[in-house]
Amino acid sequence: MTRGKQKLEAQKKNAEKNQKSKGSQIEARAHGLQVVCPICRAQLANQNQLVDHYASKHPKEKPPSNSG
Fold first, then answer.
1. Three-state DSSP state, 35
2. GO MF annotations for this entry (predicted)?
3. In this structure, are 7 and 25 located in the same domain?
4. Which of 4, 11, 33, 44 is the most exposed place for a label (fewest CB within 10 A)?
5. What is the count of structural domains for the chain?
6. CA 4, CA 24: separation in Å to the nearest integer?
7. What are the C-alpha distances in Å from 38 to residues 11, 19, 24, 41?
8. Is residue 24 domain-shared with residue 1, that is, in the same domain?
9. Ramachandran angles phi, psi of 53, nearest 5°
10. Same domain, 1 and 27
């Protein structure tokens, strides 16, 4: 069992380690999701996923072109 200064240093080290790991997936996901479906506002990672999304969710509509 640690006492005094060792205990405080261990708690500080663990707190820093745990803080760094939190939020990184959320930030990476937000950065990765760049394409948005104009109909239902679903966020997708790329144009290919948008085409697949249109095929399954909006079969009567045509997917937008790559430029826009």
1. strand
2. zinc ion binding
3. yes
4. 4
5. 2
6. 32
7. 47, 36, 27, 6
8. yes
9. -60, -45
10. yes
- 43 and 62 both lie in a single domain: yes
Same domain, 27 and 40: no
Structure tokens at 28: 């990476």
Q: List Cβ neighbours of 40 (8 Å cut-off, separation of 6 or more).
A: 57, 58
Across 28-33, average pLDDT: 75
pLDDT tens, residue by residue, 8-28: 999 999 888 877 655 567 777
More confident residue, 35 or 29: 35
First to last CA, the chain: 61
Q: Which residue has the higher pLDDT, 49 or 25?
A: 49
Domain span holding position 60: 33-68
